[in-house]
Amino acid sequence: MRRGLWFVAGIGAGVYGMVRARRVKEAFTADGLSDRWQALTLGARMLRDEVAQGQAEAETELRERFGLVPHGRPQLVSAGGFEPFETLAAQAPQEPTGGERPPQPSDLSQHTRAHKEGED
Predict the structure, then answer these.
(1) Which of 3, 37, 100, 117 could form a disulfide with 96 if both were Cys (CB 3.0 to 4.6 A apart)?
(2) What is the pLDDT of residues 72-81, one digit of tens each?
(3) 95 or 4, which is more confident?
(4) Spatial CA neighbour of 77 closest among 86, 64, 89, 67
(5) φ and ψ at 16, to 5 degrees?
(6) How far apart are CA 56 and CA 71, in angstroms?
(7) pTM
(8) Rounded to an integer, what is the distance from CA 21 to the centroid of its chain?
(9) Residues with Cβ < 8 Å from 69, sequence gap 6 or more?
(10) Residues 11-34, buried b or exposed e (16+ Cβ, 10 A)?
(11) Can you spell out the DSSP letters for 25-70?
(12) pLDDT digits (tens, 9 = 90+) for 18-77
């Protein structure tokens, strides 16, 4: 009985060792390395998606908590007497049309001369 037990234990250890050796050998073949690389990239992609989802949830929660604008294009808000960009862009001087001419450097020198002489 004792010899039979050791015989079965030896067969079991041999089978276990052969299976492990076959798995290690398969892991280091081109197909095995390719499978491992694909599994690694899939895991990294899943981690990236989970992190992005967590960031979006946290941002939504913070926006709700502080009463900020929902996701989308950020709005420019007037703060401290400054006008929003859209308002400033609408008030910007337009390009000169047919009859008007843009100021020339000679016009500026005449204005400077007049100012120095006190004619302004």
Answers:
(1) 100
(2) 565 555 555 5
(3) 4
(4) 86
(5) -60, -45
(6) 10
(7) 0.43
(8) 44
(9) 63, 75
(10) eeeeeeeeeeeeeeeeeeeeeeee
(11) HHHTSHHHHHHHHHHHHHHHHHHHHHHHHHHHHHHHHHHHHHTPPP
(12) 999 999 998 889 999 999 999 999 999 999 999 999 999 999 898 888 887 666 565 555
- pLDDT above 70 (res 12): yes
> Is the Cα torsion angle 22, 28, 34, 39 positive or negative in sign?
positive
119, amino acid identity: E
The DSSP 8-state label assigned to residue 97 in this structure reads: -
Tell me the helices (H) and strands (E) count for the chain, helix number first: 4, 0
Tokens of 7: 């015989």
Compute the radius of gyration of the chain from its Cα atoms: 39
- Give the number of other CB atoms < 10 A from CB of residue 43: 10
What the block records as the tokens of 26 is: 């398969």
Contacts of 114 (CB under 8 A, 6+ apart): 120
